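Recap quiz, item 2
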Amino acid sequence: MPEVQKKKLDLNRREMPKQAPHVRRHNFSEVALGYPVEVAVAEAERCLQCKKSQCVSKCPVEIDIPAFIRCIAERDFAGGVRILKDKNCLPAICGRVCPQEEQCEEACVLRNKGGQIAIGRLERFLADWEAAQGPPEVAAISSPTGKSVAVVGAGPAGLTVAGDLIKLGHRVTIFEALHLSGGVLVYGIPEFRLPKAIVSREVEYLHSLGVEFVTDFVVGKSRSLDSLLQEYDAIFIGAGAGLPWFMNIPGENLNGVYSANEYLTRMNLMKGFLFPEYKTPIKMHRRVAVVGGGNVAMDCARTALRLGADTRILYRRSRQEMPARQEEIENAEEEGVVFDYLTLPVRYIGDENGWVKQVEFLRMELGEPDASGRRKPVPIKGSETILEMDAVVCAIGNSPNPLIPRTTAGLEVGKYGNIVADEENGKTTKDRVWAGGDVVTGAATVILAMGAGRKAARSIDQYLASC
Amino acid sequence: MARLLETRMIVPNLHLLTLEAPTIAREVKPGQFVIVRAEEDGERIPLSVSDWDVEAGTVTAVVMNVGSTTGRLAELAAGDELPTLVGPLGNPTEIEAYGTVLCVAGCYGIGSIYPIARALKARGNRVLIALEARSSFLFFWEDRLRATADRLFFLTRDGSKGLRGHVGRLGEILNAEQPVDRVIINGCTFLMKRGSDATRPLGIRTIVSLNPIMIDGTGMCGVCRVTVGNATRFACVDGPDFDGHEVDWEELLQRRKTYLPEEVVPLRTSSCERRHHEA
């Protein structure tokens, strides 16, 4: 009998050390501290190394999960990194922000017994181990094909496309509208969840492979897509979901009412928490309400808390329906964010200087399931209540950015302004143009954007080989 | 990254900056703006474009020194680099054959109205220009505006040049020159608001170039939202030009004041050091 089968099933999913809530709520440093080596190895040893591994099929970028976990168990960390990077060029990022509990970890056979392998934490462990070894191993680059690709947007989708295509020998230029590359990874996700040094390391790595980055360049404005098509053989659009939604309720344009994008951009991209050393101002609010129940809402609430505000989340459904990751909800709760469930703001009331001072909201109850399968919140008549607030952050979602569709002929867009692209290969209705990520799907996850980027890169490479 | 080729104080507190920006110079149209950062840890602010030169690959903006970032811009010397210069952003001002158009400008708007007037003239319009300032010494570019316009008017608060008073006296010019088919106003928020108030009773379509706070300038952050005709619009991607009679001016004026207290902090903490450095 092989030894593996004799081993007793270990269901003890190893916890990751974190900063204590009372400490971390006063700083912007990373909350989760990562596995120490011995804990990572112990966690990896629990993996059953299934022959038909369900976890791989649930991974949007098809990482050979059992193989990299086996490497950790055997302490061959360099080998594990290679397996990881074969399919995922941004493991340090995905290990932190992927919703593994809905993907690979959900499919783990140990989940039924409550002991699914902490795949995300192990991924992060390998990526961090690699970073600690100094400059990364530079991937092998195929000989130059003489073909060139323009990538619009340096977010997760665009970085993936660039990484894949540069390795295949194509020339790649990324055009980024902001002054830093990374897209939502730099302007949206806070430092305490994804340190910016990690993003810049990944960008540097792509740069070292030969990817050219042009920042402060708005495709559609600085130069049209059609004009770029004259210079490049193919274009990938990964411009993201950069148009914030508001609720169209009275008082939404009062001072002190922010979109999540503005609130987070001031903090993360512009480093407002270091004001006045950094020149982008932020307000020190005392009471902040964050409207919404997704990961972005959690990011906003935990940011507001760290700036010293009493912070509440107003969410119209119950905790069960919240789209945010369980881990993020728990982190926010531990840190002291107050959750008002079944609560729908209907009006913001301002003071005589145009600053928000109160939120009027309705209490809701859950009715029949709606199109999303979640029970639909229905207002309770006469439940109007008023809360004192000096700031509101609206974190209810984003539409795809309209700049490129508005300025480009022949690019079909859908109902919500999303660029229409083939799900299998990312091809748009315009010749030689591919798209992927949030600009196609509307606001989704980093890993789905990367998955779309991977598929598009494959299709672009096939096209370039044939043209 | 963009190199500053020329900088000078054109009138007290207004600085003319000419920047190396061949890409922007090729694409920019009247009424558009750029976003700049004055230093690596600086904030992003929008500046209206006042002129450009495709051959030389340059873009010119007139900046009023009103706060920490514009103050820093004013301190830069030729040869210095701006870490960010991005554009052209926003929709261009609509240029059609309207008939007679009155262009009204004050402050930095005297710069940005120039390419608009030039394009209107090239399109065959009769172009009138009215400039407004507290006093005559605050006017600039009179020569080139005179060369562009069919008639040039001045309004000064102290009466040192042209009509005495503010833009509220626009009605007199409009009555004397009628029919005027369109009014286009560039400049500070008060100028645009009062100008729109003056044209409303006359029913003349009035286009203003709004100047709310911005960060990215691409529609992503939404801080530049303005209410126009009871709907929320983003000035960066839906504007900056809007119908002045439809704008909620009170809201815009209030939103522009959001960071007034914070704006003063960097001036207190960092300006001394810089002055020493200069000396």
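Chain A is about 35% helix and 15% strand.
The two ends of chain A are 55 Å apart (CA to CA).
End of item.
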